[in-house]
Amino acid sequence: MSVNTSSAPSLAPPVSRQGIIGWMRASLFSSPLNTLLTVLVAWLLLMVVPAMIEWLFIRANFDATTAQECRASGGACWAFIVEKHRLILFGIYPYDEQWRPLLATIILIAVIVCSCVRWFWKPSLLLIWTVALVAVAVLMWGGVFGLTHVENDRWGGLPLTLILATFGIAFAFPLGLLLALGRRSNMPAVKALCVIYIELIRGVPLISLLFMSSVMLPLFLPEGFSIDKLLRAQIAIILFAAAYIAETVRGGLQAIPKGQYEGADSIGLSYWQQMRKIILPQALKVVIPPLVGIFISLFKDTSLVVIIGIFDLTQAAKAAVADAAWRGFSAEAYLFIAFIYFIFCFSISRYSQSLEKHLQTGHQR
């Protein structure tokens, strides 16, 4: 005897298997080990978070005029940041002229934002970048239009960090593409040179390259000829980042099916036409996440120029902490610059995720 079950109503999943309860059971309490880790993390958060909130906000002092008043509050001394924010952001740039690096920073951020908007992805974007970089150079150096000339030895803070990162990415990316193509070239000499360069640069830390550019490079230059210290640091950053970009792009090139190359050959495209129209667009889509990781690391690694005496954001924070009248508030200073780095790096990461989603063509699984 058969039983007709076609008319039986479908039952909803148990409450313990859906919603927030189901998620907690599956993610936080799915095993004894996960349960133990969840309890430990919850205990740690309960111990740390309330104390951090109390120190950062509840007992913090925002309007003290002396260090003694800040210390008496028992919380974070954000009044120190209010007092020293111009030194941290602009370094030792002349105080009365600090509107110039502020405007230069706004211009750089604006042109970077424009570059992230698809509507601006036109040939005119190159003109926008050219005008913006000329404006930044005029503002920072001066010497024209009635602006006081300021040597780049006095540049510092956030504008200098943005300049090093922007020029580093702008020049390292095309150089990395050429190195990646050269490493996959069929010409032995070109391939050997690219392999030696990539492996040599990737085999040493950025600090070593900065020291070599600052100390050793001048020894090999002709007498009477010198390269500015800031330019030497910029070149070292570009060369370092290009080697990592080259290996990342090479991985993307290897991920492209051989049929794409054969199809490009079959329609009579030249090598550079194949790369520009077919191969590189697909390869770069695949490697967007690691490329963005390199860009974020490069932005943070600009802080290493402090070891050769360049007054970047980190060095400016150290100078602010060294003030005898406000000594002892290094935690606030470094939290402030950490927040600045986080804003930029998080923005880059979120944009890369949206770009990857927009350009998704089936490479994700």
From TrEMBL:
It is found in: Cell inner membrane; Cell membrane. It comes from the Bacteria. CDD domains: TM_PBP2. Residues 158-347 form the ABC transmembrane type-1 domain. It is a multi-pass membrane protein. GO terms for cellular component: ATP-binding cassette (ABC) transporter complex. The keyword Iron-sulfur does not apply. GO terms for molecular function: transmembrane transporter activity. InterPro entries: AA_ABC_transptr_permease_3TM (IPR010065), ArtM/GltK/GlnP/TcyL/YhdX-like (IPR043429), MetI-like (IPR000515), MetI-like_sf (IPR035906). The chain crosses the membrane at residues 33-53, 102-121, 126-148, 160-181, 193-221, 233-253, 286-311, 331-349. GO terms for biological process: amino acid transport. Pfam families: BPD_transp_1. The keyword Membrane applies. Keywords: Cell membrane, Membrane, Transmembrane, Transmembrane helix, Transport. Belongs to the binding-protein-dependent transport system permease family. HisMQ subfamily. NCBIfam families: HEQRo_perm_3TM. PANTHER family: INNER MEMBRANE AMINO-ACID ABC TRANSPORTER PERMEASE PROTEIN YHDY, MEMBRANE COMPONENT OF AMINO ACID ABC TRANSPORTER. This is Amino acid ABC transporter permease. It comes from Pollutimonas subterranea.
